[in-house]
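Lab channel / #folding
Pinned by the channel admin:
"Please post every new chain as: sequence first, then the structure tokens as a reply. Keep commentary short and put observations after the output so the thread stays searchable."

First post following the new format, from NK:
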Amino acid sequence: MEDFVSRTRQNSDISDEKIDAYNEYCKLIVYNRLLSDRLKEVTSERDKLKQKYEILQDTFPNGKHKRFRRNAGQIKRIFKCPTCEKSYGSEASLKNHIKFKHSSYNLQSPHE
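Reply from TO:
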């Protein structure tokens, strides 16, 4: 009879081990599912941030703000045409004016 009791106890120990293994297996399945769902959420958030980043890259290329453009009243016109006395904000603008309006005039810098 003792032999029967010890075998029954051994069999119940094995079944307890199987139950513990099954419980661990179930926990792993649940954790895997939770992690999978969280991974989908994080991936979705990453994609949204990527889209926002691309929009910002288009708005501010090279990480810089768009260059501010001055209106006509804000430009200091210190470069004067020697022929017609028109003034310009840059030497390049003055040279273009001379080239197109006074093509016979020699293209030299007025400050030389």
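NK: Residues 69-112 form one domain.
TO: also worth noting, The CA atoms of residues 18 and 31 lie 20 Å apart.
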